[in-house]
Amino acid sequence: MTEIRGGIELPARREDIVLRTDDGLTLVGELALPQTAEPVATLVCLHPLPTAGGFMDSHIIRKAAARLPALADLAVLRFNFRGVTSPRGTSEGEFGHGIAERADLAAAMRFVTDRGLPHPWLLGWSFGTEVALKWGGDHDVDGIILLSPPLHRATDEEVAAWAARDARVVLVIPELDDYLRPAEAEQRFAGIPQREFVAVEGGKHLWVGEAQTSRVLTEIVARVNPGVLPLPTEWADGAADTTGAA
Length: 246
Fold this sequence. Notes:
The protein is an alpha/beta fold. The chain is built from six helices and 14 strands. The protein is globular, with a radius of gyration of 17 Å. Residues 242-246 have low confidence and may be disordered. InterPro entries: AB_hydrolase_fold.
């Protein structure tokens, strides 16, 4: 038995992909699918701030792709926003301050449609939540899951617009966040009647450590495929890679 923690990578069908934006850029990414089953839902992952080191391998997103196809039968699509480099490669263009990234999200959602991936959810973390809030309403999604939303770029009007949308809005707010803590978050999102609010005791903006990682992944799966909970902590067949950082 192999303990599921850190940089472990569980079996999945993994495919390097490229996305094409309407403004002519090529973005690099990866699609991870359950190894044998068909996915029951799809996570479209939107990574943290590029100018602060965010990329498709930011650890929560990387661990979602490494674990959830095997543990929860999910398709996980992750990619580098424009101008961002990771071991997968570099996406063309330059940082768009959450505005130009509208086209990046649109390219990802076209890919989801073209591949027939089921029940898409937007999973945003930090800057990725801004892109989800600002532009996710352009697309037919089951919901958005917002990890550590700073609300630096999404306006009050853009947040309020989700009240009229037929999509779930899940807020996962760290108690000790650097930007938006639970009490203020409750106020800022109060106008969305379908919001689901999760305050994580002891949580921090970057969700460092296996306990925080497990909590976040559990909250994601609780919305997207709750029937598989609780997530196992060991894997009988080992894993392909255990070298990633925690």
